[in-house]
Amino acid sequence: MMTSPQAHHPDLEDLRERCRSAGLRLTVQKAAVLDAICALETHPTIDEVSARVQQRLPQVARTTVARILDEFAAQGIVRRVCHSGRAMRFDPNLAPHHHLQCIECGRIDDIALPEIDEVLNGIKTTGFVSREASVIFRGWCRDCAPQGARERVRRKRPD
User: Fold this and answer.
1) All domains of the chain, ordered by start, with CATH?
2) For residue 139, which phi and psi values (nearest 5 degrees)?
3) Residue 113 near residue 23 (C-beta atoms within 8 A)
4) Cα(53)–Cα(36) distance, rounded to whole angstroms?
5) Which among 73, 97, 132, 137 has most CB atoms closer than 10 A?
6) Quick check: 1 pLDDT over 50?
7) Residues 62/78, Cβ–Cβ less than 8 Å
8) How far is residue 36 CA from its own chain's centroid?
9) Model's pTM, two decimal places?
10) Cβ(36)–Cβ(52) under 8 Å?
């Protein structure tokens, strides 16, 4: 995961504080979901979070995890990350940042790009009120890039 001061992955205590600030009671199940989100650091899906929670609390159903994640998203503790053709993912990083999405394995990495943030901030001058904005770059991660793909992309760029 690429990080910078803007693309900070919060730790467990950060997320617990968000819950307290939102007035949420931190049940054992909610604490396990927070722990899973922090441990995974991969913009996890409901299934990934559920599998991690069930390692510790086997009695917690996937539907319970989904309900908790929905509540966390509604309260601004995490945000939903929807990328085409893939399962809904959850991101605890609420700071402005963007994403790199691998079209092969589905991996999503954070990337902070202050230059793009400046462009997005320029939209505010139009009077448009944006709730959130994120730029998604789709391509291949380092592990999935087809042989020669980087070279082909470089050759296709105009000078």
Assistant:
1) 12-90 (1.10.10.10), 95-156 (3.30.1490.190)
2) 175, -145
3) no
4) 6
5) 97
6) no
7) no
8) 13
9) 0.77
10) yes
